[in-house]
């Protein structure tokens, strides 16, 4: 039969481990602020209309001039389900994309999720490599 003292120490150790894991998870997820930005590089003076939102926050519609950008900041939720999506429209077309999806971007973007909208498609900055990646093609 185990002593009450041993059971208490075992329970304390389990609680300590849970607190450590929760603290690490919250440090990596809860405390980080992410800056997201959509840059208009369509050229030719083209105005880009950007409407971004999450389940809880509608950022409204913005007109972004050629060469300008629109950005916002947020903190990912503790459940790891944060999603911001945007509708883009311009004279040459329209497109819907996820500007930030925790599952895809928590490592790739970490603190910055930057996008370039160009005539051929969209580029996203990979924060791990420092390179712009061609991610969305207007043809698809």
TrEMBL record:
Q: Which GO terms describe its biological process?
A: rejection of self pollen
Q: Where in the cell is it found?
A: Secreted
InterPro entries membership: Self-incomp_S1
Q: Does the keyword Signal apply?
A: yes
- UniProt keywords, alphabetically: Secreted, Self-incompatibility, Signal
GO annotation, cellular component aspect: extracellular region
Superkingdom is: Eukaryota
Belongs to which family? Belongs to the plant self-incompatibility (S1) protein family.
Task: Tell me what this protein is called.
Answer: S-protein homolog
Species assigned in the record: Dillenia turbinata
